Model the fold of this input.
Amino acid sequence: MATDDDATSDRVNSVDRVFKKVLDAVAKTAPEIREGLPTRRAKVETENPSGETPLAADVYADELLCERIGDIEGVGTYASEERPEAQTVGSGLSVCVDPLDGSSNLKPNNTMGTIVAIYDSPLPATGDDILAAAYVLFGPTMTMITAYDDTVTEYVIQDDGTYQAIRVDVTLPDDPTVYGFGGRVADWVDEITEYVREIESDPSMKLRYGGAMIGDVNQVLTYGGIFAYPTLADAPEGKLRIQFEGYPVGYIVETAGGASSDGHQSLLAVEKDDLHARTPVYVGNESLVDGVEAHLSDDD
Ligand code: P6P
Done:
């Protein structure tokens, strides 16, 4: 007779299988997305649910990923930053995708990539529901960072869509050296301005801000430090989307031994009712994220 342990083991095996299938699909699709970039630099006519005007490249990446991920047995729902509603594609786990994070970097040929989050819940999910997260980074090489089963792994993706681990058990360096805060400096609240000035006064800290969150987060994962798209005076919730950006990078950085925050709590503790809700994002070494919370708590 099947026992509870058997059911748990079956469940874990099933999630393992779906996770691996999602990684395979994302890695297989990455070279096609990259190859399609040069001819898809123009904006499309329509706005996305966040009121932004996507490039043809955003739409192309979303269409490919929806088709490939939607075909995976065990994936029930696909949602993306480019689609107002989640799509039912079967039964099982929910997958949220930012198909081309940082696509404004396409024209100046800077980094951009794809963010994926897998939730064991209908959408909108909470941070407690996240099972795995990953991002593909289109840089001088194509790499993929994954967080699953309490560990972070870095892969290189080949042009044929195969991928090999190049770093296992990735953890943030103990001594941070980079920082990057998004938004216009004139729009930062005073507490953030004061904290950034404090960070800047540390001779060991260097500014690294490239305009694509995952490129900047990858700097933090590699060199230690902090990335933020902070609360702004005219946009207290900041710019980044909790389901598609906040939860996955918060999960990745916390799994790598760092910390995440919306300014007051772990990003994974943030709860929002709307699929496209925004949140301030601070991720990096715990000491630096704690510093943000200490400065912002002064205004409470
Ligand atoms: P800004 C890209 O559009 C994005 O969503 C993130 O990848 C990035 O961190 C942020 O917006 C950049 O925003 O205001 O600096 O252009």
